[in-house]
Amino acid sequence: MSTSRPWLIPLKWILIATFLSSVLHYVDNILFFAHYPEPNWLNPKLVDLFWFVMTPLAPLGFYAIKKGHHNIGALLLIAYGACNMLTLGHYKFAPLESIAVKIHLFIALEAIMGFILIGYILLLYKNSLRTVTR
After folding, report:
1. Contact, 87 vs 108, CB < 8 A?
2. Number of domains comprising the chain
3. Is residue 31 a part of any domain in this protein?
4. Residue 91 lies in a domain
5. 124: domain range?
6. Which among 90, 130, 120, 122 is positioned nearest to 12, based on CA atoms?
7. CA distance 25 to 17
8. E strands within the chain?
9. CA distances (Å), origin 43, targets 18, 47, 57
10. What is the pTM of this model?
11. Radius of gyration over alpha carbons of the chain, in Å?
């Protein structure tokens, strides 16, 4: 990644949007757990626990990048983005038509934000590698 800092501003906003999308999805998932397609072994406490484990990856990754530890920060943020994309796993447990539209929207929003986050990080690396090889 380049050492110039303008790319931190969009990254910050992508992280905020990704965080908010996960809050929407996880709160709804916990409050309306019975409406979500889940494996038999999963319960609201595990869903809650996973959110509290994955969420610190975002500020830790952002902080690492701000301190110049780009590789570690990027790995943490890619892991956070991938955790957000795990929400697509709901579709493994029920047919699409059996899931409420609201749930589809929350799943899609969180997965899309995870994808955007990962894409942005990878784009930063692609651009920095292009700069280094010149």
Report:
1. no
2. 1
3. yes
4. yes
5. 8-132
6. 120
7. 12
8. none
9. 23, 6, 23
10. 0.90
11. 16
